[in-house]
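Retro notes - structure team

What went well: the batch runner handled both jobs without manual restarts.
What didn't: labels got mixed up in the shared folder, which is why I'm recording both outputs here explicitly, each with its sequence directly above its tokens.

Job 1
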Amino acid sequence: MQITKAEVTPVELSVRQPVRMAGLVEITHLTAIFVRIETRKGQNAWGCSVAHPTLTGENPETVLHACREAAALLPDLHPTNIEYSLAEISTRVSASPAVMCAFDLAFYDLLGLAACMPLYRILGGYRNRIQTSVTIPIAPVKESVEMACARANLGFRMLKIKGGLNPEDDVRRVQAVHKALPDHILRLDADGGYSVQDAVDVARALEDELEMLEQPTSPDDLLGLRQVTKLSRVPVLADQSVKGPASALELAANHIVDGLVVKLVTCGGLNNARQVDAIASAARLATMVGCIIEPALLISAGLSFALSSPNVRYGDLDGNLDLTNDPSRPGFRLENGWLIASEVPGLGYSVEL
């Protein structure tokens, strides 16, 4: 198998409604970068990444330039020698996590196409479906309840409520949503916005309502994060603190949290995601496969990973739902909050570019 052509295409994606997150400006759009590789046999595989100065900490122009440099290397690489090919890219271009994610996904997609198997089976095939949460952005109490009920009417039974700007408001919002939807599973994601004391107070106030508390304190304050975990009866998961295998090892070895969130874009793709999950499993920590605001192609890849491992206990793969001009279409099905795998070879998707 030989790669004959590689194309890199940036796409400006628009969000249906501006998204507020703790510590970030309102998000109205972001840049997705699609990579298409073509083989001598006429096979076409796709990878994708996202670059956003505040969401991922990466400049879109820098990532795009590096992706184009990496694409020029591909005809000299064997796509199913994934470890070698990714190592070559990482040593010969400015390979940020976003850059590595795009090519990592394309290589794994092609592996599935070559084997004529869906990727989730190649990676392990532990299950063929997983339940996902859906996000309720920061908003006043009444509006939060309305959005939660609207999502519930679509069949979702897990709701992830964004917070981190005001702990007292967050407690009121969670309690109001719980009162309106007492049988739904609720998660609170503070995006690093709380102090240690605020996080402990929120966890104590909501210990009967929450399934988990995600990234309550600053991503760099591991000591504070460990204090919250020790004092909270609600399981605490690290999100932005997880930047790849090395950070995952530090979190696990020092017993900082109860679980790790893996996002393909920020950790560098499936290869690194699997390493993070292996570390979590060895340390008896739960893995949640998460996402940012991202195209369906990336959600398909995250789903393939989530379905492959028994240590993945939580799914949070809703990042494509509020995009208005996503050129990728998922092959998986979304039914009553469950993501169900496609049996299409590779990542399972279609792209119209």
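Job 2
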Amino acid sequence: MRRVGLAAILAAVGLAIVYLLGAGHSTSRSATTMHSPTAAAQASADALGASPGGEPQAAAAPHTAVMPASQASAPRNVMSGAAAGTPASAPSSGSSTCTRPRYTTSDSTWWDLSPYFVANDMWNVTGYRVAETLHACSYSNWYVVATMDNSKGDGAVKTYPNSHRDFDSNPEISSFSSITSTFAETSPDRGIYEDAYDIWLNGIATPGSTEVMIWNDNHGQTPAGSLQATVTIDGRPYAVWKTGNYIAFVASTNFTSGTANLLDFFQWLMTKGWIPDNTTLGQVDYGAELVSTNGAPATFTFSDFSVNAS
């Protein structure tokens, strides 16, 4: 989940929301939770604004949802490792596409490339043995090396490293004729995780907001809630899980790249009556929710990401 955001951090949103997952996304998950870009906060929701010509505008100051105070630390927007424009060395286990990272971090910080952000969202690492380092060449070309296990047997998601597009002025989805996103990932095929979109509608982890996930590559995870429907979008069948304001589209067959016609997903949700016709778009994230790498370092590579709306 956020989730996730960033440039000049607004005063922390008063709402404190957290979900601790059981087996994958278990029923203990809150439907209004934001993955935090610090241990406390998952990125902003600058929402996509439409100019008079209908084109997206750049994000303004981000909005930040925070975790409970007991888990919170002051949000930071830090470019650690290399300075902007100065390549850092990539480890030998790194990506074949991002060979000279411009941004590296081993904690919950993020790279501000407004309106895009790359976030090492280590939102639920307290009490677990987790090491995770993110290396980024751009918002569409980055990778993360993570080490964690499921020794507690609770199936809890620990981190959600991601790239996301923040939007401004909370435009209504109905005002767009097209909302698409491209993605490409390469994952290690071991451990417990899923590669997925995490999208916030009608606010960012606020009362009444809706979290929509699209799982394209699932390894041992189960969404929260229960199976409510099946649907074919972009020529691919999905099982649709739901509980409260949390909805997950889980691809019947794993795939690792493509173009997602997000507007089609949103319009289907409207026809089901699960979101209102005046629903607004807040944030589109893409990354990997990580539960376990079987206690050994594993590399997750992301070689494409974009969000386009008109």
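One thing worth noting from job 2: Confidence is low (pLDDT under 50) at residues 1-92.
We'll revisit the folder naming next retro.
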